[in-house]
Amino acid sequence: MPASSTSTLSLAGRLRDLGDIELAELLTLREVRDVRLRDFFDLADALLDSASVQKALSRLDRTGLAALSVVGAQPDAAPMTSAQVASQLGDLAPGTGASLEVARTLALVDERDGGWQGYGPVVEQLRTWTSIGLPSLSELVSEPAPGVLAPVASSDARFVDHIAAEHAFAATNSIAALVTEIQHEPARELARGGIALPETKRLAAAMLVELDQVATLVEIAARAGLAALDLGGWMPTQAAADWLLLPSGERWARLAGAWFDRLPADIRELLASRAGATWGDHLADYLRWLYPAGGTWMRERAFAYSRDAEALGITANHAPSTPGTALITRGADEAGAAMSTLFPAEIDKVYLQHDLSIVSTGPLVPRVDARLRSFADVESRALASTYRVSEASVNRALATGETADSIRSFLEEIAITGIPQPLEYLVVGAAARFGSLRVGRVVQPTTSANEQGAQSYVTAEEPALLSAVLVDSGLQSLGLARVAPTRAVSRFDESVVFWSLSEARYPVAAEDADGRIVLLDRRRVARAATAPGESTAEGIVRKLRMAGETTSEETGQAWLERQIDTAIRGKLGLTVTVAMPDGSSIDLQLEPASLAGGRLRARDRRSDLERTLPLSSITAVGPPLAE
Fold first, then answer.
1. Which of 255, 283, 414, 557 is the most exposed place for a label (fewest CB within 10 A)?
2. How far apart are CA 600 and CA 616, in angstroms?
3. Residue 43 near residue 37, CB atoms below 8 Å
């Protein structure tokens, strides 16, 4: 109890003196989320709680843990210099200063009087380690590191690069398909997190991957800034449009560079120092040694990054590829250039088939692929890909501003053997039928009684077409009500009705009040990130500062009272500075007994007398002087 109370006093004072940014960073690092904290003493208690301390210790590497153990092993808890600590760490000594600085940033140790001093609860937690199966100080220092990561044999490098290039090419194309799909229709995110199962199935079908791969690919796309959550759904960002038009090697470099940028500094340095060495079990063994208390946190951390590295071809079978090594040692641009040499050459010509399919004998240049996807559906994708044109896919393109002439002109540009007659008829016929359903806005108030309250209308050239819409179970949520043989109305606005019909593959067009076809600008891009709101850590800092506001005089008195109260509860001695009537001050070594009515009652340790002092005469309190 005394050690804990002394540490609370010391840490509370240190926390109070931190700037707002430093304090918020500490709260974020220590994952403090309790908004009920009243003051810095509560915060100090929270940071020194045994569970919180153990969680923070799990983030320290072996040198940091050993250094803390040495600092805490001093019988008199006197401050130790970095050199004194390093003298006891053997092979771990070179990183002593940096590791102790990390521990100080985490509020696990303090620097005072030119040396390091541990907080009582941290020292006590370290002393329990052997009882919970964690290494003692001697084991931290003496246990040798596992063998260095095994180098990849030169004979295996070609095989590794081949597998890595396949993975990288597949992932890059899958993410391009993901971006295109969520541009057509956002993917709904569940309130509890994760993409809804029907949406996952839709994305898997579009990307031609297994269901369990979808979340990983969405995460990679989001990390690269190509997809973002907006209004509860995943949508492409503005940057995604430019990315889709980049050569495949540059597309991959963007994805791999984002992976590397988010890699924790310690793992990045570890991999860079062992470039060209296999990861896998060797890396896992080394991380277990480096972070003895890392446990599940470190395993999950390492797994997530190694999983994505495999998916992106940075590694293959846990061995770094040539582009992967270039990424870690020389950066994304050189890695992209290295991967480009492993990718198959891109082509810009295709075969147009009489069965309405379009076949590429190799990967298409991104510009051609992106345009084809706008009016054709991908049926298969590998080194050779197949697209299929249908009336529904052409309608989709027409709804975004394409015309029969623009589609035909593009097909003539990329066709090796010309446009087959069936494909020509399909495009021309779809364009001719496009707009046989029209959607527009109902202007209120309206003279028609049965259209009161309606926001939009749907008209059809033939009653049978409107009847098909009205019985379509997928459109029941629009609440369409027939008000004439070829006219129905809805309480939803025209954009909702239009896009619902378009996604249901009807030949629908939007029209203005004069009956002219117009293009509706559906927002397909996630909104630009706005300034983030106040974080939990920032909110706690603001609350702590507000709790200390009033006048500086009142704040100082409240701080003194809390320090004295903590000392009373912990039965601690204090150095109390008292202002004298002549303007001088004296320091008394006191053991506080009670604080009431603005007066402190305490035993004077030097004279062994009881003193009663007005709180207004006390200007400062501090730890007791050493006897």
1. 557
2. 10
3. yes
Please spell the DSSP secondary structure of 440-474, one letter per residue: EEPPSS-S-GGGTT--EEEEESSHHHHHHHHT-GG
pLDDT, tens digit (0-9, with 9 covering 90-100), for 112-170: 878 898 888 898 898 888 888 889 888 999 988 876 556 666 657 889 899 999 999 99
Strands (E), 361-423: 377-380, 385-388
The residue length of the chain stands at 627
Q: Are 524 and 235 in contact, with CB atoms under 8 Å apart?
A: yes
For 552-622, CATH gives: 2.30.30.100
Per-residue pLDDT tens digits for 293-309? 887 777 777 777 888 99
Under 8 Å between Cβ of 338 and 326: yes
CA distance readout (Å), 231 to 188, 325, 525: 9, 39, 11
- Helix-strand-coil split of the chain, %, nearest 5: 50, 15, 30
Cα–Cα nearest to 322, from 165, 173, 149, 155: 165
Question: Taking Cα atoms as reference points, which of 350, 349, 356, 372 lies closest to residue 423?
Answer: 356
Per-residue DSSP letters for 105-152? Answer: HTTSEEEETTEEEE-HHHHHHHHTGGGGT---HHHHHHSPPPPPPPBP
- Would the pTM count as exceeding 0.90? no
Burial of residue 366 (number of CB atoms within 10 Å: 0-12, 13-18, 19+): buried
CA gyration radius, the chain: 34
3-state SS class at 572: coil
Q: Is 304 left (phi over 0), alpha (psi -120 to 50) or beta?
A: alpha
- Whether residue 242 contacts residue 291, with contact meaning beta carbons closer than 8 Å, is answered with no
Peptide bond preceding 614 in cis form (omega within 30 of 0): no
Confidence label for 86 from pLDDT (cuts 50, 70 and 90): very high
Backbone torsion region of residue 216, taken as left when φ is above 0, otherwise alpha when ψ lies between -120 and 50, otherwise beta: alpha
CA distance 616 to 598: 8
